[in-house]
Specification:
Structural class: alpha/beta
Length: 301
């Protein structure tokens, strides 16, 4: 037992050391490795350092030299606040801890953060589960919808459905269930919807997208679809028909993540996402049914 604890302790220490090294390395760059966060790589005393402004993006810069900070004096719009009005660090990054809000913090949102408080309401009674469709095809401990204990759940999401363009100008979009290579998705969904026999008050949602959906070649699909009114309308109309075909009660939008350039996001995603949800709500309401809408959001701060 003592040997086992020692091994665990040593492993933990080694892990922490490598974790610290990894964090340190992320602020450095060279002629073959650019900055992980897209910042400028400026050379000083033979060492490449990631940052913004003249010190990093000026004459000594070797890559990403036009990069702009998230916030502050070196941002594309120096007067703009960070999302959610969090602090802007001296180096142009948004966050909520002392390194962002303390000495050198830029802008008006500095110092102690005022965190919002929530009143107790029915939202806290909502219990949502996710079912990963590929779990049914595992060679060890395969897990089918009928294995889910749904008595305590109010909602459950089926992951995932995917979409792709039906034409070259991205104004028409179609849906299909994710293939796991083992099971027939249609049969799996029928079993999933059948969970309402065990819990008649259960709401069964289809989750659209997912992490791997944001990988090439589909990385731009969300942004391209949401960018036009025709694209949003087609998405909403065809999604409703897809949900009605299988008997889903609502949709969970899993866009990972709008605006995030490292995941294929674009600047206009923020506004277009609102327009997309508005189009969905209108399409659902016009159907005469009370379909639900949820969406996944990043919690960076």
């Amino acid at each position: 037992m003592h040997l086992q604890r020692s091994i665990v302790f040593v492993s933990l220490c080694v892990g922490l050391v490598f974790s610290g090294l990894a964090r340190a390395q992320t602020y450095h760059c060279n002629h073959t490795s650019t900055c992980y966060n897209g910042a400028c790589c400026g050379f000083s005393d033979g060492e490449g350092v990631c940052g913004y402004g003249d010190s990093w993006c000026g004459d000594t810069c070797i890559s990403n030299c036009d990069a702009k900070a998230e916030c502050g004096k070196d941002a594309e719009d120096p007067s703009a606040n960070c999302p959610l009005n969090v602090c802007c660090s001296p180096f142009g990054f948004c966050g909520t801890t002392e390194e962002f809000c303390g000495k050198g913090c830029q802008g008006d949102n500095c110092g102690d953060i005022t965190r919002p408080s929530c009143q107790t309401n029915d939202v806290f009674k909502t219990k949502i589960g996710y079912y990963e469709s590929w779990a049914s095809g595992r060679s060890c401990d395969g897990f089918r919808p009928n294995d889910i204990a749904v008595s305590s759940l109010t909602h459950i999401n089926y992951a995932f459905a995917e979409f792709e363009p039906n034409n070259a100008d991205n104004t028409s979009w179609g849906f299909e269930l994710m293939e796991d290579g083992v099971n027939e998705p249609k049969n799996l969904v029928e079993e999933f919807i059948g969970l309402k026999k065990k819990n008649p008050s259960l709401s069964c949602y289809i989750s659209v997208g997912g992490w791997s959906f944001e990988d090439p070649p589909r990385q731009l699909y969300w942004s391209e679809m949401a960018a036009t009114s025709k694209g949003r309308k087609s998405f909403s109309k065809n999604l409703l028909e897809f949900m009605q075909k299988y008997g889903f009660d609502g949709v969970d939008l899993d866009w990972e993540y709008p605006v995030a350039s490292e995941r294929g996001g674009m600047k206009d995603d923020k506004d277009n996402y609102v327009l997309l949800i508005k189009a969905l709500r209108e399409e659902f309401d016009d159907s005469g049914e009370s379909y639900g809408i949820t969406f996944t959001t990043p919690s960076s701060y």
